[in-house]
Amino acid sequence: MNLSITVNGHAHTVDVDPTTPLLYVLSDELALRGPKFGCGLGQCGCCTVIARGPRAIRSCITPVQTMNGEDITTLEGLGTIEKPHPIQKAFIDEQAMQCGFCLSGVMLTAKIALDRNPRATDAQLRQALSTVLCRCGAHTRMMKAIKRYQQEVRA
Amino acid sequence: MNRRDFLKSSGALVVSFSSMASVADVLAQAPQPGRFDGPGTPELDAWVAIAADGNVTAYTGKVELGHGLYTSQTQLVAEELCVPLARVKLIQGDTAVAPDQGTTSGSQSHPVNFNESGLAGACATARQALLQMASQRLGVPASLLHVDDGIISGAGRGSLTYAELVGGKKFNLTVDPNAKRKPASEWKILGTSVPRLDIPALATGQFEFVHNVRVPGMLHGRVVRPPEVGATLVRVDESSVSRLPGFVRVVVKKNFVGIVAEKPWQATQMASALKAEWAKGGGLQPQATFYDSLRGQTQSRDVMTVNSKDVDAQIAKASKIVKATYRYPYQMHGAIGTSCAVADVRGGKATIWSATQSVYPTRNTAAMLLGMRPDDVHVIFTMGAGCYGLNGADTVSYDAALMSQAVGRPVRVQLSRKDEMAWENYGTSYVIDQRIAVEGSGADATIIAWDYEGWTPGLGGRPGYTNPGNVITGFLAGAEPAPFAARAATDPNNYANNLNIAPSYVTGTVNGRSGGTGTVRSERVLTHNLRSPFWTGPLRSPERLQNTFAHESIMDEVAAAIAADPVAFRLKHLRDPRLIAVVKAAADAAKWDARPSPQRTIRKSGVVRGRGFSCVLYEGNNGYSAMVADVEVDQDAGKVIVRRFVVAQDCGPISNPDGLKNQLEGGVLQGMSRALTEEVTWDAAKITSIDWRTYPPLYVGAELPVIESVLVNRPDQRATGAGETAITLVAGAIGNAIFDATGARIREAPFTTGRIKAALAART
Question: Mutate which of A14, A23, A37 to test chain B, going by most B C-beta atoms within 10 A?
Fold first, then answer.
């Protein structure tokens, strides 16, 4: 079945089983590196992309057929090494990671929470990140980077 | 390998693998490593190359696991060779080009590659050689030459670049074990907080993990593991999946079952749909009685770490005896990205892209499973999700290799969350009895005897160079785990405390020589190593963490029993100056209030606060650390919230201060997750902790403590391990803080709501 999605500003038509999770299309058909398979159950956030609204979506449990015609942004769609997005720059400046596998979940979830509510309280940010996982224990650095981005959004 | 095993399955295509390469073949090519360090190589050109443009390429066997080693090793090379970071290219973990340094594990990368041996020794040799060449060509003694940015100059006789001296050519030298390292006082790059070189690519989604490796013509595999522990394959009904779109093949080897399809989603669906019949396993000991059952096992390999042979006599005459039993569960690495590998096995050659910690051992053991020679297998390290020990990286490398060999095309395999969690090599569980004898009272009270007896199960472990059966895929495919041999304890010949089985507070006296760090002369430390029903293997601070939890908890219990301040009481029984220094550094930084635990007055409900202490000399000689935890306990909810950790660390000369801080913070939070919520669970037949609901971790949105790191830099000392010390202390520090706050002692990890409530209810 042919489906159309726009990813990071580029239009794609993919011919896949419509029940295929969006993540598999992004990583295997389009060879993107940002969204990752962590659990396949929507429990960790590694597969997070931005779409619909915009919201932070867990692409590992989102059938691609429900995304036909959607505009999707992945971690690599935010910025580049030369010109990182402010939240990416905040994470680089704070050295807020160890292995970095979880970053789609942490950064994109925090970005959406703050873009929607730049005055989000710490409790609200924690709620937004309550099912976003980092196994390396970079949590405190990540929260610092997120707060740094919040300063920028509010300014 | 019994060929009849292949015939068990019917209906499926049974791939007739050539029999496994003989152990002798593999041994012929296997070095004999001490611990997990490979032999490296004496050939300088295998470590360092100067290109025609003067840029430096260095080769290392110690790889990036998310802990910053790629960056710190690049700093080391740049420092020793006096070039900017940007002129260094580091190649890590590739059996075609990098030296065999065994396994990146056990807090060994810093001591092995940052002292006089390994990568540091090679770089120091290269600088020495370049200086000698320049000295001859310029006619100036090497001692008068100056090196900067790859240019050697001096005494007004001009200058020569590395490119002019040896660019594009080999050194043809052996590594000089006496080559002089640059002293830490002259460092400009090493010892500074160079930002991680890989972080910009990680933060922008550009970084290539092993999960992102794509090879032309690549297929996708999934494994189908047994439904129960010990279940064996009876038959596979290939027709249950063979008509599905994208089907390529069902691959069976003894009890190993894999499915290969054109696309990953197809393989995932086929793995669920495949009809396979399995004979039941032997069943599992109920979890509720598991710890007690360990004591009753008769087949045991007993190890005596120290035995002064007067412990019973000392205990008999002691004025006070403090006894307690501590329990620590099986825990998981729980890699955040399930393990993944890509293999291309064709035409008698194999290439495996793997996140293994051990490219050479994985090469040799994969060769055994494939029936190939190690020289025909090429393993390329490609980073995986954060690795805290023996996760699924090795086993999935075998999965991909077996499936690729069967279909003759490259195959990528990524495990499902359940397959990752139900079959990995867990950090093992422990039951530990501690019995401590005290003499005197009040300020004079002193420990006079320490009696430790521990029971711990194990199965499998690192495959090393010869044991693919030490992880699940190798075992399913027909290799056995390293044999278990029961053995009575014998008296030790020398003191070895690699697993921190002996506490820091005993003298560690063996054959009249004291190898320990403490003052307690009467000491007996006996471990019963038993067979585990589950696979086990090194998980960050393996066994050191479990033992230290028991040591630091009982030390706190003894201090409380005689109403002594826990820090002062520790200091009284320590005599290693560097360990004493970190204990004082942590206590000072935390503004430790010297008084006995628990608090003088304790409310029995509501929220109460307390602080706990713990310390360790990691592995007896590989990193000094001490910690204070400040906690709040909500006694009505049975919940503990850690508000602050202070952690002091001495790992010799610090290679990258911010990198070390990141490691301490990560160790602290991972340790907190393990202390509070993580526990492998099972029912009568199988593992039941199979996802993040059933194995709850510390999410980013959790209530987080403030973490204060105190870095004790020792530029004059040898580099020690740094990544596993802090995590070792967390359970003890939190448990002691809970006691300080509430007067309730929790002796079993993790400190779940149920256990906290039970301990509170047990207060008198």
Answer: A37
- Count of other CB atoms within 10 angstroms of residue B234: 12
- Specify the pTM: 0.95
CB B71 within 8 A of CB B194: yes
Looking at CATH, the fold of the domain delimited by B31-203 is given as Aldehyde Oxidoreductase; domain 4 (3.30.365)
Same domain, yes or no: A6 and A73? yes
Are residue A67 and residue A84 in the same domain, yes or no?
A: no
- Return the residue of A nearest to B699 by Cα: A133
How is B189-207 classified by DSSP, letter by letter? STTS-PPPTTHHHHHTT--
Judge whether residue B23 has pLDDT over 50.
no
CATH fold of B3-16+210-281+333-423 reads Aldehyde Oxidoreductase; domain 4 (3.30.365)
Q: Do B701 and A104 touch (CB under 8 A)?
A: no
Whether residue A143 and residue B706 make contact (CB cut-off 8 A), yes or no, is no
- Rounded Cα distance between B406 and B371, Å, is 12
Q: Report the Cα A142 to chain-centroid distance in Å.
A: 14
**Chain B hits for A40, Cβ within 8 Å:** 268, 338, 416-417
Q: Nearest Cβ partner of B205 from A34, A92, A140?
A: A34
Q: Residue B245: pLDDT above 80?
A: yes
pLDDT digits (tens, 9 = 90+) for A42-81: 999 999 999 998 999 999 999 999 999 999 999 999 999 9
Q: Which two tokens stand for residue B292?
A: 């007690």
Of B212, B264, B336, nearest to A46 by CB-CB distance is B336
Give the gap in angstroms from C-alpha A155 to the nearest C-alpha of chain B. 23
Q: Encoding tokens for residue B234?
A: 């009876």
CA distance linking residue B45 with residue A75, whole number of Å: 40
Region(s) of chain B under CATH 3.30.365.10: 3-16+210-281+333-423, 31-203, 430-761
Q: Fold for B430-761, please state it.
A: Aldehyde Oxidoreductase; domain 4 (3.30.365)
Q: Do B198 and A100 touch (CB under 8 A)?
A: yes
| DSSP state for residue B687 in the 8-state scheme | B
Contacts of B276 (CB under 8 A, 6+ apart): B224, B233, B235, B236, B237, B257
Nearest to A127 among B207, B701, B707 (CB): B701
Q: How many CA atoms lie within 13 A of A128 on its CB side?
A: 25
Which of B725, B591, B541, B573 has its CA nearest to residue B648? B725
Counting the structural domains of chain A, the total is 2
CB within 8 Å: B417 and A107? no
Q: Which two tokens stand for residue B35?
A: 């611990």
Going B419 to B423 to B428 to B431, the CA torsion angle's sign is positive
Q: How far is B666 from chain A (nearest CA, A)?
A: 4
Closest by CA position to B331, among listed B730, B705, B639 = B730
| Statement to judge: residues A47 and A86 lie in one domain | no
Residue B455 CA from chain centroid, whole number: 21
Nearest CA in chain A to B204: A76
Provide, as residue numbers in chain B, all residues whose Cβ is less than 8 Å from the Cβ of A91.
199, 203
Q: B337, A38: Cβ pair inside 8 Å? A: yes
Token duo for residue B98:
């990098």
Token pair for residue B385?
């999700």
Nearest neighbour of A91 by CB, restricted to B203, B211, B337: B203
If asked whether residues A83 and A148 sit together in one domain, one would say yes
Q: Provide ipTM, 2 decimals.
A: 0.98
Q: Is the peptide bond before A54 cis (omega within 30 degrees of 0)?
A: yes
Q: Domain range holding A95?
A: 79-154
Chain B residues with CB inside 8 Å of A42's CB? Answer: none
Yes or no, beta carbons of B204 and A78 under 8 Å apart: yes
The CATH number linked to A93 is 1.10.150.120
Does the distance separating the beta carbons of B211 and A40 come in below 8 Å? no
Q: Residue A21's closest chain B neighbor by CA? A: B265
Q: Give the pLDDT band of residue B108 (cuts 50, 70, 90).
A: confident
